[in-house]
Specification:
One of its GO terms (biological process) is negative regulation of DNA-templated transcription. Keywords: DNA-binding, Transcription, Transcription regulation. The chain is an alpha+beta fold. The protein has 8 helices and 8 strands; from the N terminus they run αααββαβββαααβββα.
Amino acid sequence: MHKPTQRVIDILNFLETKPKGATQTEISNETSIPKSTLFPILKTLEENRFLMCEDNYYKIGIMMWCIGQNFSKSSAILEIIKEKMQEIVTEVNEICQLSILTGQYTTYIEKVNPKQPVQLISSVGKMIPAYATSLGKSLLSNLNYDELKNIYPNGLTALTENTITDIDVLYKQIEDIRKDGYSYEVEESMRDIICFAVPLKQKDKVKYAISVSIPKYRATKSKKEKIIKCLLQKKEEINEIINKFE
């Protein structure tokens, strides 16, 4: 545990329960933070508008409200995306997943399972190198060549025999994603799995990506075409809605 950070959290958690505010002495007594240590923390939080002070009573400030508003917007956006993911699964009867880019990785934050006897085993919170997945490639599609190289300064490591390990080949695929509107991978992160994905943009920035994964033996030409068409359609619908959020 990082003690200075924990002290800030303790202060905010305590004041969240005190709508009328609390004095420095009350905060010190509740959090067990010495007054000499507490005062500069309170002043810094006040100067950055995370706290406000009126008549020596400290209260939650406007920046905490702003953060809460942003969280509410994000939650609303995720609910909208999940509804569209359910529509995708209903139409193509394959798993649909949602992810975000966290550093070098794509992180799965939501999934909707199909009614299939054989389906991909996946879990929310799982992280995979972005370059090896269709979701990750869609999330990387906003980057220029130098930005891409900066994310992977040590190169690309193969997860399977089909994983792209050449940064130039990866960037060529990213250029194709920007042109075609979708990404794909064939057994690059997992054997016997093919995946298609689309980037979701808010204010011209890729924020999320959604995908449909399918076992190789079910990946007929007509099935793949249906998945791509469905993803592109839902991408437009989602982008139109989420870009109404400020």
